[in-house]
Predict the 3D structure of the following.
Amino acid sequence: MKTKEMEFQKTFIEIKDSLLDFVFPPHCLLCDSFISSDETNDDSYPRNLVCRSCWDSLTILPHPFCPLCRSLLDKELRRCPKCPQSLPLSLNRSLGIFDPYYQTLIHHFKYSRKFSIGKNLGRRLGEILKKEEFAKDFDYIIPVPLHRSRKRERGYDQSRILAGEISKTVSIPLAEKILIRNKKTKDQTHLTVEERERNVRDAFAVRDSSLLWGKRVILVDDVMTTGATLQECAGVLKDAGAREVIGVTLVVVNP
């Protein structure tokens, strides 16, 4: 009975979506051009939201980079030779640079419940990470968590969605319950570097340090601005026994 109900609901949704597309043809969020019907059947990018041309033209960073000086790192390097080796975060791998196109996509993903955008960006980032030799050495993928009150307001955790897609793509276990946010922090959009560091200080904790001992961790977030949040999380994870922590984000601001 449940199977028949699910099939009926799926058919109803498909008919409803088709009618909506007929009455209100989908337009690209980035260039406002009409999205043709053949494009809307392609699941390799966010169907009905972005045209193939805009999706394919998104900038892609060629290499991981140092989270401190933002220099791109050669393939054999796991740390920047010019920066302090004591930094908790070894390196960061981002899909692209925070330009107006990524800004629009991430905004719709985070605040308009356009989950297909986040899932497709997460899969694209996962495919890139999959080609990196260093990624094979890691044990867990951990999302930077939202505070429970903010998750309740928003209804979902965007970093968890990204981390889930990356985990499936690179076949590294998702460990979403190890790291928690125990303090509600201010929105960091208009904060200085120093204010961001103070804002996230002592905001995170580890549930069970025995799960982290000697492990290598990939830490996932949507945007890297100053790196304060990622560095704070990485420090907490390393203090709990993690051997190495790297960051993976959709975009980086002003590399």
Remarks:
- The beta strands are 89-97, 140-143, 179-181, 204-206, 216-224, 244-252.
- The CA atoms of residues 73 and 81 lie 9 Å apart.
